[in-house]
Specification:
This protein is mainly alpha-helical. It is built from six helices and three strands; from the N terminus they run H-H-H-E-H-H-E-E-H. The chain has helices at 15-18, 23-41, 58-81, 92-96, 104-123, 144-170, and strands at 85-86, 133-136, 140-143. A hairpin with a 3-residue loop joins strand 2 (133-136) and strand 3. The chain binds nickel (II) ion (NI).
Amino acid sequence: MPSRYNRGVAANPYASFLGARNPVDVIEETSRRLSEIVTRLSVGSNLEWRPAPGKWSAREIICHLADCEIAFAFRLRQTLAETNHVIQPFDQEKWAGMYGGLSARAALSAFSSLREWDLALIQHTPAEAMGKKVHHPERGDMTFRTIVETMAGHDVNHLTQLDAIVAGFAHT
Ligand code: NI
């Protein structure tokens, strides 16, 4: 379905979080930012604290970022490899249902390794391939570049949540 019929659903729902920042710069620094946040929160049970009932803890947010990196890794490669690849969405709340015994450290390690690998792929993707077309069943037609921008905006969204959690503990 052409994107103009998508009733206002944006190709990158996180575009406002990215703003005018360079998405590759954002993508490159997120592992370091997450590492600092995990270190800051690795006292007491701060990684488990929930800002509100039903909201994710810092540990769960970092597990979610690791899982999203798996999805992004697959989408980036399928977009480059296939013609008009169709993305398979996933239910993030169902995936979060598996986070019970998983550690923030393991999630951070997985995220950082995958992010390094994805960043290398992105940085070695020729400029003309950045416009390669891909289709998301809910967000419409987009390009490889849109996925990169979505990764960056998604990072900023969750880093903002994590910064707020860290700031909350800084006052106590
Ligand atoms: Ni998210």
